[in-house]
Amino acid sequence: MPLVVEFAAQEPEWLARWWAEVLGWTMVGETEVRPDGPGVPLRFVPASEPKSRQNDVHLDLRSESHGDQTHLVERLFNHGARFADIGQSTEVPWVVMADVEGNELCVLEPRKAYAFTGPLAAVVVETTDPREQARAWAEQLDYDIIAEHGEFASLRPPTGEGPYLEFLHNEEPHPGMLRPLSH
């Protein structure tokens, strides 16, 4: 069963168009964005209330080189994304940003592990039990468990293409927006 990532948005159509433009993906209807190659669909649904805290699901964007990482950060910034502080160390090699509605994302430094993911390196989920969640999602999606250690677990589609699904420990995760895609 495929995967879709949902984001609650104040203006779902506008946010979907924004992500389609920055990722170079295709709009499907007014509120869904799909990759032309490896990736997972992004769906934007009306928010019941304004965003007031960090999401428990965020996207990690892939870069091919340090220059590409810088270019991607500049492109996102020029499209309205802003730098974000989620308590990360100033020494991390990735750049934390937020889209135009405040949804957190990371622009990763080049990593060989993400070579065949497409522009989206990983969908990252914060949970109280990363290994338990990874096992449950692996079974539901028929993904391979790539890593399980400490407070981290990682899954990958069996084709070896497309983004990783990664789980990080958080004692107080917020309601999730990760869904199996039914169509």
TrEMBL record:
InterPro entries from the UniProt entry: Glyas_Bleomycin-R_OHBP_Dase, Glyoxalase_6
Gene3D superfamilies to which the protein is assigned, alphabetical: 2,3-Dihydroxybiphenyl 1,2-Dioxygenase, domain 1
Source taxon at top rank: Bacteria
Region forming the signal peptide: none
UniProt protein name: Glyoxalase-like domain-containing protein
Start and end residues of each Glyoxalase-like domain: 6-108
Pfam families per record: Glyoxalase_6 (PF18029)
Organism name: Saccharopolyspora terrae
PANTHER family: CONSERVED PROTEIN, HYPOTHETICAL FUSION PROTEIN
